[in-house]
Amino acid sequence: MRFDTVTNSAALPLASSRRERWSAIGTMTMCVAMLIASEFMPISLLTPIAADLHATEGMAGQAISISGLFAVIASLFIATVAGRFDRRRVLMALTGVMLASLVLIAIAPNFAVLMVARGLLGITIGGFWALATATIMRLVPAADVPKALGIMYTGNGMATAFAAPIGSYLGGIIGWRGVFWVLVPFVLANLLWQWFSLPSMPPRATNPVGKVFRLLGRPHVAIAMVAVMLTFGGAFAAFTYFRPFLERYTQVTVPELSLLLLGLGVAGFIGTYYASAWVGRSLYRLLMGLPLALAAATVAMLAFGHSFWAVAVAMVAWGALNAAIPVCWSTWLSRGIEDEPESGGGLMVAAIQLAIMLGAAFGGMLLDRISIAATLIGGAVLLVLAALTVGSGRRLMGRG
Do you know which Pfam families this protein is assigned to (predicted)? Predict the structure, then answer.
């Protein structure tokens, strides 16, 4: 049973409607988990993917980059496209593209097909994330938006915590292709859940692409996007190549690698929890301090890279710090561009995905041309530059 679209000013009084509404939030949460798992699974499978497709590890890392490129394009144009169709159909179409991408990855005969499949995944990533916040604002009353967003980000945390270690472990048993086949039935189940749970959300006024770019004319928004790109670019320049670092420096086995990635992911729950608790009163200090602390954790991994337990501690810290960053920037978005949530969301997603793409490419170039140590140092430098860009936070405050 479907329910009518709800605006922020009106809530459905019936308990059954409320249950249906939260079921819709549940299916979005599952979609987030599948997206995160699909997007970053190659990080835990980088070495076997490279070997099987006859590519360098740096080239395999570009599978992260290419999804970022298409995510940037999708995030910039999705608001304009979605404004002409029922939002329910748009979200289901995006999930269908993700399903097709996973099947294509699993059967990829060569590196070129893998890149095409990752490009399709990027369309879903950019499109979904650009619409997510605005969609939730249409599903629940204003008072429930923070709770709904928190539930949706739980899917992010769960996938971050378990996708990489499970992928690494299963990859050693059923191969990297088998790991992607495992994801297929879950995405299919999510698509069916969307069919039964998502309400009809009729199109509203179109949202021109130019509106997204006009936001950059606001000085505080432009500076924020630079800081966002440096932060996420630095993080993913390092994170994308954690597996080759751990295999070469720490000389971990596959079970040890899975354990380290699990620790990193579980720590993300801690980072998300404390960021949510502190962000209301310390937003700008967190936006400046988190990249600095993440840079320190990255350098610590390199400095103590030959000690398993020292690296484990550094990775737990890294996971907690990294998970806190999206919470802080999402909060800034709700304050800094509150008058244009869909355009602001598209711009933020575009900046993040472009940063992931360039960061992974930068890290891969340093890995192939210099060393894995250069990759981690390069990521740390970008993170320090991000902190300097944020500064005291005054430049990120709008005039309103």
Answer: MFS_1
